[in-house]
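Quick check before the chapter quiz. The format below is the same one you will see on the exam, so make sure you can read both the input and the output lines.
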Amino acid sequence: MTTFAWNCKTVDAYPSYDSLTDVVYNVHWVLSAERVEGEETYSSSCYGTESISLEDLSPASFVPVEDLTNEVVTGWVEASMGAEVVAEKKASLEASLNAQINPTSVTITLGS
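Here is the expected output.
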């Protein structure tokens, strides 16, 4: 079974935006996958940035930076990407793990 984990702890923020302070508009994310097969652990990851829409931002929906958690920001990233893109990224990581477990090519160094 593959376990996925998001790291969405690095963000870009506007120091001031519509009378709010430290408004996150961009997230630097890493999505990691890990699978244990017998005694071996296989891992793969991908990374990128995701812009966060500020269209619906209001003082009532604003989360101050000191209250932000990885889980909250991950929710923003997944919502911004959409379920289809998130599923594609996870499928790509699954394929990478499968290629590590069952390689179709190997590199061999010759002795002489």
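If your answer matched, good. The chain has a mean pLDDT of 96.
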